[in-house]
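Q: I'm teaching a short session on how sequence maps to structure, and I want students to see two examples side by side rather than one. Could you give me a first protein with its sequence written out and its structure tokens following it? Keep the formatting plain so it prints cleanly on a handout.
A: Of course. Example one:
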Amino acid sequence: MKTVLFDLDDTLIRHNDAIRGASKELFTQVLPRRSQDCNEFVEKWISANASWYRKFYDGQVSFQESGRGKLRESFSEYGCVFSDRTTDVLLLEYWERYVGLCQLFDDVLECLRKLNEYKVGVITNGQETQQIDKLKRCGILSEFDVVVTSERAGAAKPSADIFIYACEELRESASDCIYIGDNLKLDAIAARKAGMLGVWLDRAQKTSEIDLYDREKINSLSQVPALLANLTRTSTE
């Protein structure tokens, strides 16, 4: 293996914690007297966020339209109607809160420090400016030789095209790349289908899904150096 590639959200960065925290603050800002509905709203926001991002990945809507759509959908049952201008202001404020809450997992920096012998990159579904912004604010953008977003590649995981695009950027073959991510299907299995070694980062140890995956699985990025060393030994035997 010559190249180690990572997913971003919930692999390197605590995305789920940040989105929950930022959406709670958004709800409190808009509806300060309905605190009893906040937890319900957070779940609606997470669902709408995922569905509207998929529409963006699939080219059905622009990035701005996806943001407006998820905000209006999430607040619709609370009787809220927003103009485009108000929607955009709320989305900007939400984004600033979200990015401010993004933190690295504890095992990220130590892992990256031990990969000096490899090319290192990120492949992530997302909008270019926003994903780069998160890497900058978490202080790790300079650690990577390439960052490929779905917007930049014109394809989103689980499509093999986004993985192939990253290989072309790095001038490496897929068989020389390892890809690590927290989502079994979108990351590990999709990367394997694209010709890479797909590794499932199962931080939560989802035992119900273990039988679905018969290849490499780790529970922490601290296991990556040992995994690479084992792969090197195996290839030379």
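Q: Perfect. Now a second example for contrast.
A: Example two:
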Amino acid sequence: MTDLVTERLVLHPISVAEAEQMVAGEPDADTAWEPGFPAEDDVSVAGRFLERCSAAGDPRPFGPYAIRRRSDHRVIGGVDFHSPPDEHGHVTIGYGVVPSARGQGYASEALRALLSFARAAGVVSVKGDADHDNIASQRVMTAAGMRPVGEDERVTYFAVTWAGTAT
């Protein structure tokens, strides 16, 4: 699998072995994790990825990615496709960065890279959501080009659909 590289980040597709390390909370000798990684959500994503691999095979490139800073190669968070595109070309995403890396634009930069990859891979639309009180996450999706498309009692839903690709 090929890494996705941005100005400041490398989005590295997580392998089965790397997901197992995240679940165990123990990186290999060649991987440096920023304090706070993996967070509970990252462990959950890694666990779901392992279950998906066991049940249906490896979904990469539509799986989880570790977000690494290019400057020091430390893993500062994750961004993922919850599953491969459905029959209509839609995917749902999630993301997070450790507290020490927040507020620096890393999440928006990572999400923009993932959206660009999805569009180039023929994805029609990308969906995500954020709790009403998670203004930072709402700003990340907006900064990456996603727009609010609805809400319920708990979350605001965001999406991006590319012109000429809707079915």
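Q: What should students look for in example two?
A: Point them to this: The helical segments are 16-24, 40-56, 106-120, 135-143. Also worth mentioning: The chain has a mean pLDDT of 94.
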